[in-house]
Amino acid sequence: MKPSPRIRSLWRNLFRRSRVEVDLDQELRAYVDELAEEKRAAGMEPGEARRKALLETGGVEQVKESVREVRAGALLETVIQDVRYGARTLFRSPGSTAAAIVALALGIGASTAIFSVVNAVLIRPLPYGHPERIAVILHGGSQPVSPANLAAWRKASRSFRRMGAAEGWNPNLTGSDRPENLSAVRVTSEIFSMLEVPPLLGRFFLPGEDEPGRDHSVVLGHGLWSRRFGADPKIVGRRITLNGEPYTVVGVMPPSFHFPPFWNQSAEIWAPLALSPRFASQGESLRVFGEIAPGSTRESAAAEMASITDALERQTPGTNRDVRVRSLKDTVVGNIRPALLVLFAAVAFVLLIACANVAHLLLARAAARQREMAVRTAIGASRSRITRQLLTESLLLAGAGGLGGILIAAWGVHALVAASPGAIPRVATVALDARVLVFTLAISFATGIAFGLAPALALSRRDLTEALREGERGSTEGGARSRLRGFLVGSEFALALVLLVGAGLMIRSLLALQAIDPGFDPRGVLTMVVSVKGTTAEDPARRAAFYQQLLERTRALPGVQAAGAINHLPLAGDIWGWPFEVEGRPPLPAGETQRATYRVVLPGYLETMRVPLVAGRGITSKDVVNSPRVVVINEDFARKHWPAESAIGRRILLAEPERPPVPAVVVGIAKNTVRDLWSSPPSEEMYLAYLQTRSYLESDNSHLQYLTLVVRTGGDPAGLTGAIRGIVGALDRNAPVSEIQTMESVVAGATGQTRFYVVLLGAFAGVALLLAAVGIYGVMAYSVSRRTHEIGIRMALGARPGEVLRLVVRQGLVVALAGTAAGAAGAAGLTRLMGALLYGVAPTDLFTFAVVSGLLIAVAVFASWLPARRATRIDPLSALRYE
């Protein structure tokens, strides 16, 4: 049906009015009602009349669609015009535009780089099937539990669908020319089922494969498979030798697989964990994982476990103390969350300061363009049209800054991953993924609105007459705009102060950490782990001789000053405790034990590490199995148990598995040394003679069949690596050497996390300080240029250059002081969130606040003095002619 003349007329009218707001639906409804009324008047039934009217106006929907298309095309054309005009406007001032883009790129790039870390560590789910259903059950949330615990919990719990356990393992891979000590984990068969990660090749462990007497099987990590076996696709079914025994490879994991992700993160091989013979054991070596059953929550599982462990603790005191249920994600993230959030807040402050600087630039441009906007308003441009044009220019700047930010972030992510300490979990997965790019797009858009809205509104709301008057050259700046500039600069200084205070507190923490006396001298010391598991030296009859010969030959090397050995290095090894009692003291209540950190050493260790002896002697070659048992304790041990008398000659009783306690005479007191953490307070520690410790001399457990060799030299310690490897190989070709490092690198790693935060916060604070200085300089320079006429009049009336200088500097100083005061108040509250990152300094340290405030004020004075000095050189006659 062809449209009626009235329809065609409506079509033409709507097309002509397509650029004007009209309510199409209302007009069309009115027309249909009118047409239906005409048909009813002609005698047609109301329902039929309505139907006919709707049928005849079927073309109106086409009219509506055409009008919508016209409007969309007109809007697109307008947007393209705005973009072209905005680009031309920005290109007219290439210097200031480039400066704005660089500032935004720095802020957006830094924010994107840090967000990529936050995304990888805190936001992105763990790469397992249902990680939210996996919980970790440990003493105190971090300490291992016993096989007896696992057996009892499995039997009593209903909130967990299944429970599994993992235990650390360090087997020696032999059977080739290059023996290697591997970081490995033994797991029960439930673990891989719980994780739901398919293997790259082969299969996982079958139920019952973790029972004693079964053939040994292993699953390889992707890195080990590629490094040692050339990524052989036929590796499944092949036999390898671990600790001198054959193991069959049943699977290979994908490259992204890491488990456990919070402990023993370098594990690259997994083997079944046979626990059934150990279910009565109270030896605490397991990390227990539980899969929460359908219908249960972590909270209900934690409540159930609290009830179970309370009952077990009453039955057997000391076996179920402080058992906590934590989500796997919380356990992985650990204490890193506050640090990452502080860094993210820091880059957000840098971005806000950059936005404030760009807002200064746009305000200055707005002042220069107020006549243009006044003319556009006079010829009919609406406020929304002008605002849209100015926001388009802002978004163009933000888009260019976002593109630059992505380039900076790509470099920054690489630098962050390379420089990050090992304590940051999942840092190897940091990347610019889709979520990070969406974040970059979002903050680019948000920053464009943030720094462009105020100048756009300021221009669009200007009174026409006032705009033309203030647009004259030589006039002073409008009061509203001047206040806005002052607010922006003040906010920059407030944000910069918060950042600088945070960086200052971290610097003071690092200085305090570096001032800690470790109790030994790390300079010139090389360390390496030597294991005899699976070698001929594993034989108890040969084990001690192997290490003694190793020490003798190492001491004979040119440049070697001393050599010794220890089971675990301070800062670089596990902390193991040994139960003991003090002879002559009342026995402890049933179920209670006291433990001290123990170190098993060969003669020469204390001398090599230069650990001073406060009293008595150290471990010597005469302290062997058949001689009286001796022990060297540290100062903290002596102070706690013999505070008012000498500990030398006193005896302690060392618990022995399935044997009566063994008395040991205290023959020496050594200085306190750091333990697992650099900043940990001193604790009870004792040194046992390796040649007297039967568990190390005779046990077949792999974790008792290695020692860490320590060698002191007057030259480069790393230069001894090859020679010592040769000595080990000559003694036993299957004995691997691993974990080769200098003690200086160990100490550096202990403070590496704090140093990493100091570098990042310091860099952000430095950029913030620079941007704040540029901001106040730009505002003062612009203000001087706008007040040229006023300054000329002042000087013509007799004002001296010094008075003009003070006038301009005072104006900048007032703004900086207000911003500094606001920043100090904000920092006093925000820095309390950094408490977990600080050492030896309070979050509200007055010295740091005073130094940072003084620095900011000095920067403000200098940044204001530069344009003020230029103001004093104004020629009054030239200024009076300035129009």
What does it look like?
This protein has 883 residues and is an alpha+beta fold. The strands form two sheets. Strands 1, 2, 3, 4, 5, 6, 7, 8, 9, 10, 11 and 12 form a twelve-stranded mixed sheet that branches. It starts with a helix and ends with a helix.
Query: How many β-strands, per DSSP?
Result: 23
Which geometry do the CA atoms define? globular
Count of helical regions: 27
Structural class: alpha+beta
User: Rg from C-alpha positions?
Assistant: 38 Å
Largest sheet: 12 strands, mixed
- Ranges with pLDDT <50 over ≥5 residues? 15-22, 471-476
Mean pLDDT, all residues: 83
Strand portion = 15-25%
Task: Describe the protein's topology.
Blueprint: H1 5-16, H2 24-41, H3 46-56, H4 58-91, H5 94-123, E1 134-139, H6 147-156, E2 160-169, E3 172-174, E4 180-181, E5 184-187, H7 190-195, E6 201-202, E7 217-220, H8 222-229, E8 239-242, E9 245-252, E10 269-272, E11 287-292, H9 298-315, E12 323-327, H10 328-333, H11 336-368, H12 370-378, H13 383-419, H14 434-460, H15 464-470, H16 479-514, E13 525-531, H17 540-555, E14 560-566, E15 577-582, E16 594-602, H18 605-609, E17 613-616, E18 630-634, H19 635-641, E19 651-656, E20 659-670, E21 685-689, H20 694-698, E22 706-713, H21 721-731, E23 737-742, H22 743-750, H23 752-786, H24 788-796, H25 801-830, H26 846-872, H27 876-880
Parallel strand pairs: 5-10, 7-9, 16-21, 18-20
Antiparallel strand pairs: 1-11, 1-12, 2-5, 2-11, 3-4, 3-8, 6-9, 7-10, 8-9, 13-22, 13-23, 14-16, 14-22, 15-16, 15-19, 17-20, 18-21, 19-20
